TrEMBL record:
<comment type="function">
    <text>Catalyzes the ATP-dependent transfer of a sulfur to tRNA to produce 4-thiouridine in position 8 of tRNAs, which functions as a near-UV photosensor. Also catalyzes the transfer of sulfur to the sulfur carrier protein ThiS, forming ThiS-thiocarboxylate. This is a step in the synthesis of thiazole, in the thiamine biosynthesis pathway. The sulfur is donated as persulfide by IscS.</text>
</comment>
<feature type="binding site">
    <location>
        <begin position="209"/>
        <end position="210"/>
    </location>
    <ligand>
        <name>ATP</name>
    </ligand>
</feature>
<keyword id="KW-0784">Thiamine biosynthesis</keyword>
<dbReference type="InterPro" id="IPR004114">
    <property type="entry name" value="THUMP_dom"/>
</dbReference>
<dbReference type="InterPro" id="IPR014729">
    <property type="entry name" value="Rossmann-like_a/b/a_fold"/>
</dbReference>
<dbReference type="InterPro" id="IPR020536">
    <property type="entry name" value="ThiI_AANH"/>
</dbReference>
<dbReference type="GO" id="GO:0002937">
    <property type="term" value="P:tRNA 4-thiouridine biosynthesis"/>
</dbReference>
<dbReference type="InterPro" id="IPR003720">
    <property type="entry name" value="tRNA_STrfase"/>
</dbReference>
<dbReference type="Pfam" id="PF02568">
    <property type="entry name" value="ThiI"/>
</dbReference>
<dbReference type="InterPro" id="IPR054173">
    <property type="entry name" value="ThiI_fer"/>
</dbReference>
<feature type="binding site">
    <location>
        <position position="266"/>
    </location>
    <ligand>
        <name>ATP</name>
    </ligand>
</feature>
<protein>
    <recommendedName>
        <fullName>Probable tRNA sulfurtransferase</fullName>
        <ecNumber>2.8.1.4</ecNumber>
    </recommendedName>
</protein>
<dbReference type="GO" id="GO:0140741">
    <property type="term" value="F:tRNA-uracil-4 sulfurtransferase activity"/>
</dbReference>
<dbReference type="InterPro" id="IPR049962">
    <property type="entry name" value="THUMP_ThiI"/>
</dbReference>
<dbReference type="GO" id="GO:0009229">
    <property type="term" value="P:thiamine diphosphate biosynthetic process"/>
</dbReference>
<keyword id="KW-0808">Transferase</keyword>
<dbReference type="GO" id="GO:0005829">
    <property type="term" value="C:cytosol"/>
</dbReference>
Amino acid sequence: MRQVILCKYGEIVLKGLNRSRFEADLIKNVRRRLKPLGEFRLDSRQSTLFVEPMSEDIDYDETIDRLKKVYGIAKICPAFATEKSLDAIYATARECLGDELQSAKTFKVVAKRADKRFPLDSMQIMSELGGMILEGYPGISVDVKNPELTVICEIRDDAAYVHGTPIEGAGGIPVGTSGRALLLLSGGIDSPVAGAMMAKRGVIISAIHFQSPPYTSERALIKVERLAAKMTEHCGQITLFTVPFTEIQEAIRDNCPEELFTLIMRRLMMEIAQRVAEGYGFQALVTGESIGQVASQTMSALVTTDAVCRIPVFRPCICLDKKEIVDISYKIGTFDISIEPYEDCCTVFTPKHPKTQPTLDEVQKAQAMFDFEPLIEKAVNGISSKTFKAYTDYDF
Ligand code: ATP
Ligand code: MG
């Protein structure tokens, strides 16, 4: 009896000719995440990735926890592989689901026969195995509609696999199958969620952060680095670019109308971000904006920000309520870091009465009151970067 984790593909199964590319990226991602835990055999067959630990001392719970964060996997079934006979299958069910069989009041058996040479069909396996369980565990009865425990038996070419109710995977498609984008990462709740949502659709994420020391502290930057490090559990490797933004913000403060400070600042952020994107070959920008959330995220405000963009800007949170964003941030594990109370450059020099319905023309005129180009170039030249690998240990 061997322990094997069956990872069932999600949308990959709908792919046509380039399906093997999606599978290859998924295997590559799984290999990278599991490598620090020990040696595994990975094998992709019949819409399933078989993950088999090659030594006893591998942390099984941690393995499953990591697999739960890999995009492209819809369901995870920690299973036991055994010989293809009913007796062996029943013995395996007893061994691996014995406690649950003992304590559950109701159960059902689900059988899937992928190996058509197996003499019993799925219905026969279900009824035979169900009968054996009923005999072995007098306290349990069958409930096909709403069972407490589902015993799943998959007869595959190489072996029979027995497991309980599958664990929900992260879904989506494998990171690496959908191009590269640059995420504007603040220390807040929304932008890490936006990055993870893009990664879920296969996009490789790099991040850019604007800092304004001494108005923003070293701790605020460290918080953003920890967010990037945490995000690698779902997104894989992330390179974080840090932009010195102080002089630009001071120039806005000294030269532009106060009610438009934030909008001009956001347009300059977009300008710098896309220069980085163009330089590194990122195809799009990503932000955590959500329509109507704050003054700079009204439709009119977003129109003035978008007007400076030459490449697509994706805003996956655009139609999510704050609560929905918070729920995802819990799920990806960034919430606790995001709510630490450090300042962001967006919170310095904030106007008392920001304009919520600006016109593009007035914002363009206000920005033209100062020549920002030399400062933009200086900021771009001052960018530093740091790369976080999947599961970066941070004690910074
Ligand atoms: P978040 O919770 O992600 O901070 P928010 O609701 O606070 O978002 P804003 O502060 O207006 O909203 O920022 C909107 C978006 O602009 C953020 O989601 C992020 O993509 C980007 N952004 C804001 N501040 C920064 C920053 N200092 N560096 C990089 N991007 C930023
Ligand atoms: Mg913010």
